[in-house]
Sequence to fold (809 residues):
Amino acid sequence: MDTENVKNACSAGASQGSTGNSGSGPSGRLYAFDGPAAAVLDHRGAVVRWTVAAEELTGFRAEEVCGRPVRELVADLPDDLRDAEMPASGRVRLWHQCGDTIDVTFRTTKVGGSAEVLVLAAPTHHIADHEQGAALLRALSAQNRITIAVHDTDLTTVQTNAMPGTADGRPVQPGTRLSDVLRAKDAEDLEAVLRRVLETGAPVVRRSQHVSWRHDPARQHALSLSAFRLEDARGRPTGVAALYVDNADQMRARRHLDLAREVAERVGKSLDVVRTAQDLADVLAPAFGDLAAVDLAHSVFDGEEPSKQLNGGNMGNAALAPATAAWPAGIKRGEPVPPLPDHPLLLSFLHGEPVVFGLDDFIAMVKDPQLIEYLVPRDTHSVMVAPLHARGLTLGAITAWRCGRSDPFTEDEVDLMKQIASRGALAIDNARRYTREHRAAVALQRLLLPPATTDTPAAETAGVYLPAGGGAGSSGDWYDAIALPSLRVALVAGDVVGHGMPASATMGRLRAAIQTLADLELEPDELLTRLADLIQRLAAEAPFGDRDIVGGTCLYAVYDPVTRRCAMASAGHPPPVLVRPDGTAEAVEISPGPPLALSGMPYETTMIDVEPGSVLALYTDGLVERGDRDIGQGLPHLTEALAAHCRPDRALDETGRALLADLADQAPRDDAALLLARTRAVPAADTAHWEIPADPAAVSRAREWITRQLTMWGLDNLLFTTQLIVSELVTNAIRYGRPPMDLRLIRHHVLVCEVTDSSSTQPRLRRARTTDEGGRGLFLVSQLGGRWGCRHDQNGKTIWSEQIIQDSP
Fold:
């Protein structure tokens, strides 16, 4: 084929297909290319030899081009280069047998000892890709945090820049497998990933992988793996390329974020100082250090502020984590922390900065081998101490230890510890302040409560109080036992809305009000009505936003040991439980009125008979309401427990404690108060009753009756004063009262004289003038007796007087 024929063939092909696509045919398809095309030219530039790669590149067979000038294959050859010698290198466009032109880059070299020239050519875009790929590979290989590895189809390493950190520092040699440099399990996992990429062609991008070198299996490295399949020009798999990026900084930053988030979520939920400290230690170990301890000033445990000079001598351990670790003898929970010697590094601690010690530095600071053994955990190589500094107070310190093969503490971990210590200190200080306020509220509550036990002629009583949360909170629950005239006793149980100091203060005001109203000897319904009016006034005095939380419930009962009857009324309070001497128990049916915060609704008094030796139980809702039951379920449970625990041979205070332990939650959400009253009765032989006729002559007959009764009781020493008192009281009843009228004597440690009539007129004590003919009766009664008073009921009034019986039991 001559030159003109080649040109014509190429021109014809070019007219039938697209041109100008470097290395592509008419459809833009890239021609397969496995290696450089080669041709040998003689001294005239004619083709002497033509390789198979040259045939694949141009489409011309060897017999078509051999013997012909190579310039005939060059498209758009400039005229000034037609007769020039073949340059050493360059870039030209060759004709393809199909009519396309191919942009190639070539290089020439003399064949040794002859005039022949060897020409090597390749498509220009392949050369550019190769050069860019080589530059990229060199750049990646130079990165000390990026490891690149090329594996063949057998996953044998062909090329890598991996440095396994061996003692000689040599890189991984080609021909090795992953199992030669990695721990067996890690190599197996990685090969499974790379084999899947090789088989499917699906790349792996940024897969988190933890590996350990074979010579150092205890130390893990966090890597991010990206892998893709390598293919030749025909799409046949030739191997796998893997890029391993050192992910340690990102993993460390993520761990730091996770640790800070866990501190925010877990630390501070409790308002108990020790529980908060333990939560802080549990978060730090083992996520931050292998071991962690929290030490606090002794005063912080009690809710008080720490001293300005804080050192080990005035601190105690509050928390250790993990608790199962083999701690040294000097580090025990609840034990004092030994003082440390002064050191310049501790100045940073005093200024709120964490301090990091290596083991050697710590030994040099302490200078006492025995103290080192006493304080430092085994295998420790690094320790960090951070102050718990909040609101200008140094509350204590956090100590974290790194042991064994753990990495030493770094600068960024010092900053992280500073943030954690700041948040932990605020949580501990909040718990400290709450502890202080709670203890003050509980102390106030207990000071406002009556004595735990009382002993009166009407009943012996025992009260038990359990603050909310087992001591973590307080509200306004209270009980009371008030001795009344005529040997009676008033029993009270109440619950104020709210918690803390305001509730305790309100409870104290209500208890004082009930004491005062009880001295007026009001009926239970009348007393609760006046108490509700007081609550309304207190609510009106409260700040506008706090008016809705001023209120409460109350049960008021009065037991008379002479009549053996008990009158009671409820202001929204749970009913009492009566345990009879035979051991049976039941809730008393009463008609509860509205809570004390509501007014305008009447209260109703319920009267019941009570046998001597019975136990009357008054309580608050914290004893019958809990998370898993309401009052409807809790009241029967309380009734059964009272029947089981209230035995005649068992002291009431012991019974009360046993009931609380049996009924209350471990950490109740509300206060619980319980008042137990074991009733007594005045024997019939110690009382005497006489009906007073509406006749002035009844005064002398009353004196005669008094004389006989006191003589029979052996109270002759009280005869004269009693006659005078009875004369005045009976005279007033006949003159100002209305029948029926009664005179009653009660003998106990006092002698009680009572005159009852049907009039509601209130007697009044006044000082009579010299010229007055009357008005001295009550004055004489008040002077002769120990005390006197008047009480009203639905049928009238009773005026009473008491005289102390000398040498009475």
